[in-house]
Amino acid sequence: MLDYLRESADERAIRREHTKREKERRKRRIHKYGQMELKHSRRGCISCMLAVLSAFFLISIFSVSYLRHGNVNILIGIAGILALVLAVSGLRRGIEGFKERNKNYITCKVGTACNGILLLIYLAIFIRGLF
Fold this sequence. Notes:
Order of helices and strands: HEHHEH
Distance between the termini: 104 Å
Strand order of the largest sheet: 1-2
Radius of gyration: 29 Å
Number of helices: 4
Structural class: mainly alpha
């Protein structure tokens, strides 16, 4: 009888150890053991925000100009220059964001691409205004 109790206690200990190892293995599968979750680059996030702000200014400038049939005052021109400055600043911040270590660079890529496209649009508007 004593041997039977000892064997059943050993079996329960083995079963507990097995379930413990099984839980740890499931945790590693879910959390990618040994890899830290990367945060987004701070400058990349700022670059994305500046791109959105610059695009908002561009759309609002086009809307006001369309509604007034091209008869706009100097404030629209100043808003256009402000939007251009925001796009240049966003492009610079996006490029600087790639220098941050151990970060997720997707916001840097998106911000740099969007600000670059906005700069090309502003350049096209400027060149179109010359001719």
